[in-house]
Amino acid sequence: METSELKAELEKLHPASFGWALSCCRRNAAEAEEVLQTVYLKILQHKAVFRGESKLQTWLFAVIRKTAISERRKQWLRTLVPGTTPEATSELESDFERTEMQRRFQQALAKLPARQRETLHLIFYQDLSLSEAAEVMNISVGSARRHYERGKKRLRATVDREGVEYGIDWNRKENSSAVL
Amino acid sequence: MELTGTEKRIQALFSELSLEDRSRTPHFAHLWTRAQATKPSRVLSKSLAVSAAVVVLAVAFSFVIWSTSITQNALNIAPVEIPTTASPQLAAVTDTPPPVQHPKRIARRPRQTEGPVINDAALLSRWQSPTSSFMESPSSVRLNSLPELNQSAKDLESFLKESNQ
Q1: pLDDT class for B36, splitting at 50, 70, 90?
Q2: B102: in domain
Q3: Using a CB-CB distance cutoff of 8 angstroms, which residues of chain B are in contact with residue A168?
Q4: Within 10 A of A148 (CB to CB), how many other CB atoms are there?
Q5: Position B144 confidence tier, pLDDT thresholds 50, 70, 90
Q6: Using an 8 Å Cβ cutoff, are B28 and A11 in contact?
Q7: Total number of domains in chain B
Q8: CA-based nearest residue to A150, from A180, A176, A173
Q9: Which of A7, A79, A142, A174 could disulfide-link to A86, CB 3.0 to 4.6 Å?
């Protein structure tokens, strides 16, 4: 794929990419921006090359995820150096005016294990299938399904414990096989 | 993908989150140009790091070579022949053999800890003053033979007079 063509495709995916980067960076906008810029740099330097083996979106999301993990590792190493102050890892209490429900929802989401949160994000936010989510996370479809089910269950449990009123009938019967 | 009940509600919350995220998404062009701008500097910094690593490795390698050559020199000191200041004539006269250095001691490899100390001591013991030749008597050259034990005192005096003349 030509660079100009790839650039156009990346531009189309940019908002979704930023949303995914935000999820990978625990909702830290500055960190997500840095990660996304690093990803674009990797693409420009041909360190990350799209070979057409999968959808561009899943490939890009996998690159974003790997970059976010490595950036987080670097940040953790920086905190070990004496004299450096650890940066805020979350922007849950940002200046954005969000509803109480949304705030609680994000809090509950932040409490989930990373894999579960990522699976839920890819399926509900990015509208990917379970197999695509598994590809992004470099895990099997079975594992992705397990993370999805557990994440959903835990999200509901956390929300219930905090007494959040979603107006949702959580006990309503659902078809779990409908995901694929 | 067909969603039901809980899933639909969760998706609604995620959709709300998505809308919020879109409002704070930075412009693509902004990030892209920033990535392009940082491209050379990052490459430069990487090349700098590589060259620094090469220099450090070269210095370390040369230091290792230098230190090994120093230790080898210290261990392989050959027994230095002590230059005899006396003339060959005198050497022929004297019956006593020159001081023989014990080859075993020299050949024996010193312990690693005592090595430098022993080497220093050996070097010091072999040292000779550059002015030691001035200490020789000029008459010593003329001594062809030594007086024997039964030689009379007169003979000895005459011998000494001759040698002084």
Answers
A1: confident
A2: no
A3: 5-6, 9
A4: 23
A5: low
A6: yes
A7: 1
A8: A176
A9: A79
Position of tokens 């189309």? A12
DSSP secondary structure, chain A, as one string: --HHHHHHHHHHHHHHHHHHHHHHTTT-HHHHHHHHHHHHHHHHTTSS---SSS-HHHHHHHHHHHHHHHHHHHHHHHHHSTTPPPPP---TT-S----HHHHHHHHHHHTS-HHHHHHHIIIIIS---HHHHHHHHTS-HHHHHHHHHHHHHHHHHHHHHTT------TTS---GGGG-
**First-residue to last-residue Cα distance in chain B:** 130
Q: Please report, in angstroms and rounded to a whole number, the separation of the first and last CA atoms in chain A.
A: 30
- Nearest to residue B12, comparing CAs of A23, A101, A114? A101
Kindly state the tokens that stand for B102.
Answer: 């014990």
Query: Which residues of chain B lie closer than 8 angstroms to A169, CB-CB?
Result: 5
Distance from the Cα of B6 to chain A's closest Cα (Å) equals 6
Identity of the amino acid at B76: N
Residue B56 belongs to a domain: yes
Claim: this prediction has a pTM higher than 0.95: no
Domains defined along chain A, listed by start: 1-91 (1.10.1740), 94-167 (1.10.10.10)
Q: Cβ of A179 and B1 within 8 Å?
A: yes
Question: Is the CB of residue A19 less than 8 Å away from at least one CB of chain B?
Answer: yes
Q: Tell whether B96 is covered by a domain.
A: no
ipTM: 0.75
Mean pLDDT (chain B, rounded): 73
